[in-house]
């Protein structure tokens, strides 16, 4: 969480300094929820399809920092080689999916990865996970994917980060149920809700959902209640968020609270945390520096191939 | 004994399931029921784990197949009608079509689309959709016109690493028969001279190949020899064979069953003039369906799409008769 | 109900005799549920978007019989002029929508018709209704449309005819919740369930939902439990329906039961019912006869126009 | 003072809301926020009942607008990006596009699609989608290249009874300025000679009009006079103006920013050769984007789409230099 917060604030500065082209999308305030998922998954077998606010989850699931900086800075050596940018990165062969922009689209894809494993007899002990926002639950893709996963009773965990807004759109213009967890029963899947500003609660709830899925209890929806503590993207100041919401319990910073929790549990002291911050800062610095020295993609050398079949001329 | 076009599709899927552990089929009513057109009849019985009925969720069906394909499987998705692939459009063009370019990981997925018109099917069970999928990068689009091509292409689709949009024509399902499937198929990317000729070339694909042959037969009674080129796949599109034919005949009619704006006929004509302008003795022509939804009534439908009559008429014009 | 059953069995015979090209889709066994909706709506103001098994509801909502026979038989004088067929008919200007085939698509369209009335200040006392099958609830279109209607809190009634199958696909391959009414809460709308083989129960439940919508209580989902007592279309013998299901309570014929109910309540005697049947038979006969004498569409006279704008050449 | 392309779109919507009670706007974040591109800034404040934020439900957004349109309203739907209209594809082509033909009841609906590439936008925020909507019957597809056309077309879209796909180019939003909007617009269905010339004709639309003019400027330094024709709308497509231009110049380059297979350039070339073959002194050429998804990196992106350099190069080839 510290690492991803540090990385993201660096990305924000780079964006504001004009060093990143396109958009920068942060997960400030959502780290506890996202990281809980990344931590609860097994890096050697599970599947993770992150969404835009999942830097913390990506890091926790083992995405090297350099892949973030390479993608944001357009390095030709990054996982996307400059062909795609920012949060649209991944290494599908390592079970880290590279999202498309169309919200909800990852749900069915993760389901398919699990179906493949079932057919091959390799599903045992595997969990597939993805995240969506409150807004993404309004998509047909989310619905069809959830329903399909439920019919197949797949070991799947879907985190719904209900951060009160979809871009500028408040919940009241997005859905009419009290809590999105009310949808779980309609899909015939398990559903839980958690205060996602509370790191320990997140860890417990998300891990329980992951383990339930792993045990064969079918898809699990976990709704996290929280607030995005940044703009939709770094071009946006989020001024549409009312002060009342900002200053409510939803607006608490999961990182600050998490640190307090860690300290009060005696898991780390102030000094250690300071050290983590410093380590994070230098790791981020190194990842940025490396990506910045790497070559940009060269349109004259790029093979411009959308097909793997050789019979197709570029 | 004879083999129909739909038999060939059935046979290919049966063999694929038998030959390869990584193949599975997914679609509405394809299991015990055997599919709306019986293309999967009996297959679930033999392969209960690899022939799966899906919910009515075209978007998720393709999304699921994408996930399976990047996990080492070779899914074949059956859309009940090509027209319903409009719901899966996003997953097909934006997810399957971009994945290899973006990530380097290919998506060996086949989407079977029962296309094209039959009498009484109306606006939503008759569409040709190759224009949509041909336009977007990353997809191969096959449009078999023969029983053997249907068989070989479907088998080949599955071994190709790229997503294949397999446009099978419903009109041909039971109408088109052959004594036996050719043991050897032509390779993908090569068009076929279905009927040789020397006075004009008709370039077409899918069911229209047979309508073109009928028109050619009529004109042959008057001494005109019309060459019919079957593109077989519209992406890749074999321009070489087309140009070679136009070099022989000097005249081109591009023929298709799709809506008239854009699409295969426009692509063919504009490629031919770009590379073979000097070969043409007359302005190249196009003949497509009309620019309205596909009408339900058989009498309207028969005038909406090209027919041997309208093709003959276009050819007469092309031959300057 | 008697009328629609009579019409539909005639359509089936015409199809089997090769007099109808394309498909024939019947609502046998679903008449009570469908007709309850048609009866509960006000013909002078409400909106009805029927689906494939809604002949009874169409008739009850005032669709003239002749429109069915004209459309099935391809008369150029019918509402679709031969351009579309069978159940794809309607007169949108009279608030009877002409469905497209893509399942779920009507939900948002009905919502839009209500939104238009709200903006114009003409929503008071108006209800919009549509039907879907169990299978159609798996579509993204259904989900997006329901959610939108819920957000706008529209006076809308959505009948879900859970007839156990979608074409050949049983419920277990379609969804994983116990009852589709479990979805209502997730949309934040009212939901009720009814034994749809029971005419009186249907009338009561559906009317209550329509009245609740009219009173401003927002969208209403009514799930009817029943069995399709015919094939998916008349080309299909429905042999995939297990005998156990056929002989269960779900397989009871709502029409027979309805007649018993009517008789036992003293609303009509056996003789009257016989008379209704005879009247229905002659009405159907007349509608078929008329449509058969009407001209077919003429491709040479049809204007082949997909555009109303004159600047667009056909 | 000057007016930008996005100002024109904003202004048109403001006036429409003021002039007509039957207009309303629907889209994601278009209310208090004013839309992702601020095309609706301040409008909800003035018309709280007629500027509505939608859920993230493109399919239902268009379905809802269809319902409203057949109930006497004139909805304008804003897609946040044209690329997301893939989710609404079914409602657009199969519902809106077929309704008038099937029922006789028109659907006066406008769908605003922020199209086209800008640096760093990547594969899913850069697409040109006119090929899709042009192919299907029943839809009008406008592709304004100028500030005044954006304004007049949007106003006209709303008064037309047919569904209009309004393709506005994001690159032009703030870059393209004019002193004032022309009080009179050209009518729909008429192309514009943006730049007169006599040695070759470039037929194009949307943002590429400006790139073509740049290329023409370069070549003019060498004495070549290139005519640039702006189609303005790609359906209807004004062939007369194009043919008249080709009659003057004898040479045609069809230019577009879309993927290369099918689409506007193919349609233009194949119509021109069908009707104006004898006018051509050289094979007509096409220049499109590359056949891959649209890359994120600005350096790749700049090579993916046609540029003044590549247009100049194509023109040199066309002029046989
Ligand atoms: C299908 C689709 N429509 C619109 C968008 C544009 N868009 C990107 S993010 C976003 C808001 C998402 O809100 P939510 O799902 O709540 O996630 P959050 O940003 O709050 O984390 C929108 C509308 C999109 N990416 N996909
Ligand atoms: C989006 C879409 N996919 C597939 C179909 C093909 N289809 C037509 S009816 C049907 C089954 C519908 O089942 P259900 O919704 O339960 O209604 P029922 O027929 O049982 O009344 C299917 C799959 C379709 N019309 N639309
Ligand atoms: Mg959100
Ligand atoms: Mg059903």
Briefly summarize what is shown.
The complex is a heterotetramer, with two copies of chain A (314 residues) and two copies of chain B (321 residues). Chain A is α/β, with parallel strands linked by helices. Chain A has eleven helices and seven strands.
User: What shape does the CA trace of chain B take?
Assistant: globular
| Quaternary form | heterotetramer
- Tell me the series of helices and strands of chain B, N- to C-terminal: EHEHEHEHEHEHEHEEEHEEHEHEHH
Mean pLDDT of chain B: 97
Fraction of residues in H or I helices of chain B = 25-40%
Q: Radius of gyration of chain A in whole Å, from Cα?
A: 19 Å
Could you explain the architecture of this structure?
The complex is a heterotetramer, with two copies of chain A (314 residues) and two copies of chain B (321 residues). Chain A is of the alpha/beta class. Chain A has eleven helices and seven strands. Chain A has a single domain, classed as Rossmann fold, CATH 3.40.50. Helices cover 40% and strands 10% of the residues of chain A. A five-stranded parallel β-sheet of chain A has the order 1-2-3-7-6, with helices on both faces. In chain A, strands 4-5 form a two-stranded antiparallel sheet. In chain A, helix 1 (2-16) packs across helix 11 (270-293). The longest helix of chain A has 24 residues, at 270-293. The mean pLDDT of chain A is 97. With 321 residues, chain B is an alpha/beta fold. Chain B is 40% helix and 17% strand. Chain A binds chain C through residues 138-144, 147, 150-151, 153, 172-178, 180, 182-189, 218, and chain C through 138-144, 147-148, 150-151, 153, 172-178, 180, 182-189, 218.
């Amino acid at each position: 969480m510290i690492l991803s917060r540090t990385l993201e604030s660096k990305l924000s500065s780079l964006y504001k300094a004009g060093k990143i082209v396109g958009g920068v999308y942060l997960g400030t305030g959502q780290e506890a929820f996202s990281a809980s998922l990344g931590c609860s998954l097994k890096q050697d077998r599970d599947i993770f399809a992150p969404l835009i606010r999942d830097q913390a989850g990506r890091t926790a699931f083992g995405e090297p920092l350099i892949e973030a900086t390479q993608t944001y800075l357009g390095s030709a050596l990054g996982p996307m080689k400059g062909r795609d940018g920012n949060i649209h990165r991944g290494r599908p062969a390592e079970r880290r999916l590279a999202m498309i922009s169309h919200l909800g689209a990852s749900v069915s894809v993760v389901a398919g990865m699990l179906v493949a494993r079932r057919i091959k007899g390799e599903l045992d002990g595997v969990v597939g996970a993805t995240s969506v926002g409150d807004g993404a639950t309004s998509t047909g893709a989310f619905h069809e994917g959830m329903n399909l996963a439920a019919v197949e009773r797949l070991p799947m965990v879907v985190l719904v980060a209900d951060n009160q807004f979809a871009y500028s759109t408040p919940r009241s213009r997005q859905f009419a149920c009290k809590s999105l967890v009310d949808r779980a029963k309609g899909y015939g899947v398990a559903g839980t809700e958690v205060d996602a500003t509370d790191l320990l609660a997140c860890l417990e709830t998300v891990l329980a959902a992951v383990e339930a899925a792993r045990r064969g209890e079918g898809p699990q929806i976990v709704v996290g209640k929280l607030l995005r503590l940044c703009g939709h993207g770094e071009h946006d100041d989020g001024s549409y968020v009312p002060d009342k919401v900002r200053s409510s319990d939803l607006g608490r910073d999961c990182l600050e609270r998490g640190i307090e929790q860690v300290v009060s549990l005696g898991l780390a002291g102030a000094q250690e945390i300071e050290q983590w911050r410093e380590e994070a800062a230098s790791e981020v610095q190194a990842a940025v520096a490396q990506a910045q020295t790497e070559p940009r993609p060269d349109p004259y050398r790029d093979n411009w191939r959308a097909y793997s079949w050789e019979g197709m001329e570029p | 004994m004879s083999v129909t076009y739909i038999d060939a599709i059935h046979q290919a899927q049966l063999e694929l399931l038998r030959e390869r552990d990584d193949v599975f089929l997914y679609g509405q009513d394809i299991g015990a029921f055997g599919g709306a057109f019986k293309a999967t009849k009996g297959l679930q019985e033999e392969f209960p784990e690899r022939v799966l009925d899906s919910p009515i969720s075209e978007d998720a069906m393709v999304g699921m197949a994408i996930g399976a394909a990047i996990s080492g499987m070779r899914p074949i998705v059956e859309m009940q009608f090509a027209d319903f692939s409009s719901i899966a459009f996003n997953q097909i063009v934006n997810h399957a079509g971009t994945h290899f370019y973006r990530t380097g990981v290919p998506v060996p997925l086949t989407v079977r689309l029962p296309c094209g018109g039959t009498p009484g099917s109306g606006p939503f069970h008759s569409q040709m959709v190759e224009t949509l999928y041909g336009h977007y990068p990353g997809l191969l689009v096959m449009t078999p016109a023969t029983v053997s091509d249907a068989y070989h292409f479907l088998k080949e689709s599955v071994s190709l690493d790229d997503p294949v949009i397999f446009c099978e024509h419903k009109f041909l399902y039971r109408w088109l028969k052959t004594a036996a499937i050719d043991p050897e198929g032509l390779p993908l990317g090569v068009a076929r001279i279905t009927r040789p000729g020397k006075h004009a070339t008709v370039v077409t694909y899918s069911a229209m190949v047979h309508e073109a042959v009928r028109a050619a037969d009529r004109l042959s009674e008057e001494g005109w020899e019309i060459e019919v080129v079957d593109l077989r796949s519209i992406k890749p599109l074999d321009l070489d064979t087309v140009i070679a034919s136009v070099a022989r005949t000097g005249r081109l009619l591009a023929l298709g069953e799709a809506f008239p704006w854009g699409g295969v006929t426009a692509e063919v004509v504009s490629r031919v003039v770009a590379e073979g302008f000097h070969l043409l003795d007359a302005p190249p022509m196009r003949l497509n369906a009309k620019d309205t939804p596909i009408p339900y009534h058989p009498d309207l439908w028969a005038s909406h799409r090209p027919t041997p009559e309208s093709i003959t008429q276009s050819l007469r014009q092309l031959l300057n008769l």
